[in-house]
Write a structure and sequence with these properties.
310 residues; alpha/beta; Rossmann fold; Methionyl-tRNA Fmet Formyltransferase, Chain A, domain 2; 2 domains; seven-stranded mixed sheet
Length: 310
């Protein structure tokens, strides 16, 4: 099938790779402009652009998709479908109507739950037990289009945003290939989203990554998992910022932010209810370390205090 693909991060690259492997003719790729990244803050190609280059695909990188010239370039390719996955730009009606069979979106949630930019992290923060992939016929709303296919996935107890992302990316890639096979055989049934159960997954603000030890340990443990690998759950002790990459809940109660005990098993910190054993940590500019190695370079004693956000 003749396609144009729109996507930017690794999640989208999984889908693009699957479509190419399945033999679909991807006429061009739309992806966001190169952004500064890394310690040197040099412009870097998105994962989708990097993959497109490997396969010799045409790449368009408009700042906004209301650029008439870009729309005409894409329309000239006469795509049968526009496949969208985590593109990051709003598609106007002119873009949605380019392909003869419309625009199909790969979304990492069970719509209508978690419409929006950060469905994986929001599902973890909320303590959801399952999530999944929805393939949706796009309209002009925010993830409001009719459902073409949906498949659920259980969230494991120690799931991080990184591990869940990868499982969902693989699932989404398989589903879009299957769906296009069905589409080639005939029209697809589209089911309007229910009005009940709508939630919104707002973009993650870095300020959300600061651990507030006055919260329940259950919420903080979810926060650690939801912000791994980015942006990382943060706290400060002795004026030094620490990122917490793994933590386990512990049955203990005391003054929030106060260190209860330390050892190879972790650094136990009291929360508003319960406690967390911090088992993998990182100082700014250093590498991630298990608790034992971390304590060698930054000794802590019971009674030490992590700062409470103001």
């Amino acid at each position: 099938m003749r396609l144009v693909f729109a996507g930017t991060p690794h999640f989208a690259a999984f889908a693009l790779a699957a479509l190419l492997e399945a033999g679909h003719a991807v006429g061009a790729v739309l992806t966001q402009p190169d952004r500064k990244a890394g310690r040197g803050m040099q412009p870097a190609a998105s994962p989708v652009k990097a993959l497109a280059r490997v396969h010799g695909l045409a790449v368009f990188q408009p700042e906004k998709l209301n650029d008439a010239a870009t729309i005409e370039q894409v329309r000239a390719l006469a795509p049968e479908a526009l496949i969208v996955a985590a593109y990051g730009l709003i598609l106007p009606r002119t873009a949605l109507e380019i392909a003869t069979r419309g625009a199909i979106n790969i979304h990492a949630s069970l719509l209508p739950r978690w419409r929006g930019a950060a469905p994986i992290q929001r599902a973890l923060l909320a303590g959801d037990r399952e999530t999944g992939i929805t393939l949706m016929q796009m309209d002009e709303g925010l993830d409001t289009g009719a459902i073409l296919a949906q498949r659920s996935l259980s969230i494991e107890p120690e799931e991080t945003a990184g591990s869940l992302h990868d499982r969902l990316a693989v699932m989404g890639a398989r589903m879009i290939v299957e769906l296009l096979g069905d589409l080639e055989r005939g029209p697809l049934a589209a089911t309007p989203q229910p009005a009940q159960g709508v939630t919104y997954a707002q973009k993650i603000d870095k300020r959300e990554s600061m651990l507030d030890w006055r919260k329940d340990s259950r919420d903080l443990e979810r926060q650690v998992r939801a912000f791994n690998p980015s942006p990382g759950a943060r706290s400060t002790i002795d004026g030094i910022e620490i990122k917490v990459w793994r933590a386990n809940r512990v049955e203990a109660n005391g003054e929030p932010g106060c260190v209860n005990e330390v050892g190879d098993f972790g650094i136990v910190v009291y929360c508003g209810n319960g406690a967390l054993a911090l088992v993998e940590l990182q100082r700014a500019g250093a590498r991630r370390l298990g608790a034992r190695e971390f304590l060698r370079g930054h000794p802590l004693a019971p009674g030490s205090r992590f700062a409470l956000p103001g």
